[in-house]
Write a structure and sequence with these properties.
The protein is mainly alpha-helical. Helices cover about 55% and strands about 5% of the residues. It has two domains: about 100 residues, Tyrosine recombinase, N-terminal domain (DNA polymerase, domain 1, Orthogonal Bundle); about 170 residues, hpI Integrase, Chain A (Orthogonal Bundle), CATH 1.10.443. Helix 6 runs antiparallel to helix 8, helix 6 packs across helix 11 and helix 11 crosses helix 14.
């Protein structure tokens, strides 16, 4: 078993992540890249990946630091390698996981970027609702903002998942949750289903969002659509689907929604993942206070 070349092992590990862990293709690609970097480093210093010691890992972390990797990038690489060595243990190739003793560096705190509501309204008005693709594009915006779902969740929505202003979403780790949407999204949905969707769904696919080639829309396709939309506005911001998710959470908290409810709506496993939005809303509340309180300023 020890004589199997790393490429074969990495390939089998990728299959393990895909079929047993249900990791997304983007996560698997990131893990693959991280592990290749690790193997290249070991090859440079003639190290056997099956006989790694803590001192070797320490030197690898110094190398990553010298390469100007951010804390978040280093943390991801350690997580990837920790998972990889756990896989090697399960395959009986090693008897302990050397990366278990390695502490993850503290992640750099970055406040989530989000849109103001008037900016979103400007984007909502861009798609041409007389055209099939325009109806679809408007629905993408409406659904992302109404529900706060991830783009990977959006593209996998099936028509059968939708009922009475609710959608059954299959999230990370194959966890199911119900998200809700309001009248604006529902109006656009009904228009699309009665018109644009019928024209795009030439192959009788179950998915709600289809592309101009009549196949399922991809994550990359959504990003391209959003870039095209924002290019037609006066908004001077780069867009990503996650920014609309951030906007969903930030606007809810600004309007008085409690953090626990936002956590559940976003599908976060822990409250700590949601708590980053409190920094944004605290700044907003400060601004409101000093603008509106009669004795806040002389």
């Amino acid at each position: 078993m020890i004589n199997i070349i790393p490429d074969q092992i990495i390939s089998k590990f990728a299959d393990f992540l895909k079929y047993e862990k249900n990791y997304s293709s983007d996560t698997i690609k990131s893990y693959y890249t991280d592990i290749q970097i690790y193997f290249n480093y070991l090859e440079t210093y003639h190290k056997n990946y099956l006989k790694i010691k803590y001192e070797d890992i320490k030197n690898f972390l110094i190398y990553l630091n010298n390469e100007k990797n951010s804390n978040a990038t280093v943390a991801r690489k350690i997580s990837a390698l920790r998972t990889f060595y756990r896989y090697l243990m399960n395959e009986k190739m090693i008897d302990h996981n050397p990366f278990l003793s390695v502490k993850l560096p503290k992640k750099d705190k970055k406040l989530p970027r989000f849109f103001q509501y008037n900016e979103l309204e400007e984007m909502f008005n861009v798609p041409d609702l007389t055209k099939s693709l325009g109806q679809r594009d408007r629905l993408i915006l409406e659904m992302l903002y109404a529900t706060g779902i991830r783009v990977s969740e959006l593209v996998n929505i099936k028509c059968s998942d939708i009922s009475n202003h609710e959608i059954l979403i299959l999230g990370k780790g194959n966890k199911e949750r119900i998200v809700r949407f309001g009248d604006y999204a529902n109006e656009t949905l009904n228009l699309y289903l009665k018109d644009g969707y019928l024209k795009l769904n030439k192959h009788n696919l179950p998915y709600l969002f289809l592309n101009k080639n009549y196949t399922q829309l991809t994550d990359r396709g959504v990003r391209k659509i959003l870039n095209n939309i924002i290019d037609k506005t006066a908004i001077n911001k780069k867009i990503s689907p996650h920014m609309i998710r951030h906007s969903f959470a930030t606007h809810l908290l600004n309007e008085g929604c409690d953090l626990l409810s936002v956590q559940q709506l976003l599908g976060h496993d822990s409250l700590s993942a949601t708590s980053i939005y409190t920094h944004v809303t605290t700044d907003h509340m400060k601004e409101i206070y000093f603008k509106t309180h009669p004795r806040a300023k002389k």
